[in-house]
Amino acid sequence: MEPVTYEEFAKIEFLVGEIIESVNVEWSEKLIRMRVDFGPLGVKTVISGIRAWYSAEALLGKKTVFVVNIIPKRIKDELSEAMLFGAQDETIMSLLLLDHEVKNGSKVF
Q1: pLDDT digit string, tens, across residues 51-86
Q2: How far is CA 99 from CA 36, 44, 78, in A?
Q3: Bridge partners, residue 37, by sequence
Q4: 10 Å Cβ neighbour count for 62?
Q5: Mean pLDDT across the chain, nearest whole number?
């Protein structure tokens, strides 16, 4: 693992987002396209390869942590504007869910 400085880490903007739309990407067996509400920041599209663990329907209404200042990544004709966070071991992947209700767009530190 390559270490990062505090200054490098401080550049990353983590925000809470609520998944308000979620559909399987037609041309992929792994990808789900989500529209995520970040409150004052607006709505962004997120493409994630989590279809092996989550159905698109199961993601609706979930609030989790995203990196929102990542450079958008083009995947075929899709543009992913943020990065979803989760934890994975040898058998399962789990989203990082909040244990209290917070507003969309809340800063994570």
Answers
A1: 999 999 999 999 999 999 999 999 998 999 999 989
A2: 19, 23, 32
A3: 18, 43
A4: 18
A5: 96
**Amino acid identity, position 108:** V
In whole angstroms, what is the distance from residue 80 CA to residue 22 CA? 13
Q: DSSP states of 15-71 as a string?
A: EEEEEEEEEE-TT-SS-EEEEEE-GGG-EEEEEES-TTT--HHHHTT-EEEEE-SSP
Fold of 6-99: OB fold (Dihydrolipoamide Acetyltransferase, E2P) (2.40.50)
33 pLDDT band, cuts 50/70/90, is: very high
Q: Where are the domains of the chain?
A: 6-99
Q: What is the CA radius of gyration of the chain?
A: 14
On whether the CB atoms of residues 44 and 54 are closer than 8 A, the answer is no
Predicted pLDDT at 92: 93
